[in-house]
């Protein structure tokens, strides 16, 4: 343990003199001053006049409590960077400490370079303060607008996962990840401590967790705040870390202690990486720091006789009545003047030169690091030509293939093409222990699963140099990928459909990030977040109701239309075409939903490219309107692989039993195309929508997810009430594949009955066909109970 009350000014690698300490404390005072000024002031930002109520913002927003600790860490990391020339990325778990990071990047000069209007003078400081948490300004968190950030932190739990993703395959990067002790209580963060089992010192960068224990959340104590140092050290040690504790409330003691801890951690990391890169792997643990300092440090000790510093009351705005309470106003002014702004900023409002020189130079500044603006580092992904993987289709609906297997072959070759001589690379697959299950196992022909713990003779495909990331946590897979993408690389997250919902709020937050990033010219485009949902609700009949849930589609539909895309490929070649597009795209979130099981295949690769480029098309070979040269009596539409099969089987039954009924079959692969062009960039224009669905013909629509999603999307289209959607209706169990569609009333027989109800005229043979469908449904129920499998005419059905 390194106790801040007992440490002197020497460290193991150099001298931290009293003058160094004085400079760092003055820089810290400047950062703290600007933090408070951003929270409170709309005018008189440098206190060149006595503070008056009209100088205070009408709404006080922001978080003071965590900010002093964040600024102290930033100051000492700056010193480490200058001494070692380290590339350092700062991940702020307590993202609500936004004013501290804005202040730090302003003091180092990055902020003014990115936003020239916030100049390095009194006028710039005025703008800096006035913009914070105000209309037309910037958010209160360490948001996408904050230089140096890849982590917003508004939703807690993901800091260490994002830090890990940034470190993978960036061998020269140190990611300093500050974790709030409140955030440390979340499930994702608790899982993230297992990183040493996956971080390879030979080819990856390093993550230095700094667990900031200031003792309180927004309304009460934290678990770690009330835990002993020994218990925290034991927990982290068991996860593969070697923690050092720094604690205290006297800045003149804590600063040298933290400086020593950072210096020692850097030296340990360097030794660990040097040994690994020389081929000498050791059992050494990665360093970590536990930092105990008071919440709201250097702020008001008490307010109205109630203790604030070191308690939850310091979390946000410790003095809330300053516009109306004279005593609060005077206390605020005393607090701000205690930092000595007149000695920190010169007469023009610029930071004094000896403090300005404390910042690293150029891109070594953490606010200017290209690792935090990953588009600057992104290389194009060399996606191979798809012809190598495409299935040969002689007749549609007659070939059966595991749909995702071709994607595994494509990913295998992407791994091979992007692996660097040191064993690193710039593409990774992230998956919760399901790579082989999802039929993507071809990747193991060129790499293994990443694993830094012991390997036995009975393991399959595990090695320290493996680069397939399998961990049984959707949170970690999603978070690792997000950090990987935002720092300049490419990847894919594959998950069982039902359990990707575990990480859906993370995807929502990433979408929000990309939504705002596109409005910032200085943020270079990053590779898209690609999520593959397989083992879907319709083919998880063997696992049962717990594994049957298509809700991620509904979660994604309302998000930013400039960012979100939802793809429902019906077969392997359309999956290849969509994957090619998604892997090459930037600044999007692509949700690809396709099952891993054997399915009928329909389109050649050329047909698939045309179909996917259009987003939807009429499958003339499946309908009858072309043969009779008449407008359709009913439109049969589908989106998704199982719905496509069922709508085609329904079309065939109608063709055979009611030959004079005119049908049109439409397949939708780009779900967001159903929206109007004013609502989504991929929205089908009015002409195309009519060409697909006509203006007034009823449409029977078989859909992969919940039927309400389609009804929501077609709102505003001509006569939307003519769309009759059958989808997943929350019926499921462990049963046969066809029984799943029967239970949810989306079977071919239900679709035929619906089409006969909705057709504009009753064709000859309609009554007999309806009776046949009802008998088949009754027979199905008896057959599956007796034989434990589907009827042969269903199980073995192909298009003819």
Structure, explained:
The protein is of the alpha/beta class. The protein is built from 26 helices and 25 strands. The strands form seven sheets. It has a six-stranded parallel β-sheet with strand order 1-7-8-6-5-4, sandwiched between helices. A six-stranded parallel β-sheet has the order 15-12-16-17-19-18, with helices on both faces. α17 (572-584) links the parallel β18 and β19 (589-593). The chain is elongated, with a radius of gyration of 30 Å. The termini are far apart. Belongs to the XFP family. Residues 596-799 form the Xylulose 5-phosphate/Fructose 6-phosphate phosphoketolase C-terminal domain. Keywords: Lyase, Thiamine pyrophosphate. This is Phosphoketolase family protein. InterPro entries: THDP-binding (IPR029061), Transketo_C/PFOR_II (IPR009014), Xul5P/Fru6P_PKetolase (IPR005593), Xul5P/Fru6P_PKetolase_C (IPR018969), Xul5P/Fru6P_PKetolase_CS (IPR019790), Xul5P/Fru6P_PKetolase_N (IPR018970), Xul5P/Fru6P_PKetolase_ThDP_BS (IPR019789).
Strand-residue proportion:
5-15%
Radius of gyration: 30 Å
Biggest sheet details = 6 strands, parallel
End-to-end distance: 75 Å
Look at the structure and give the mean pLDDT. 95
Tally of DSSP helical segments: 26
Can you tell me the overall shape?
elongated
- Count of beta strands: 25
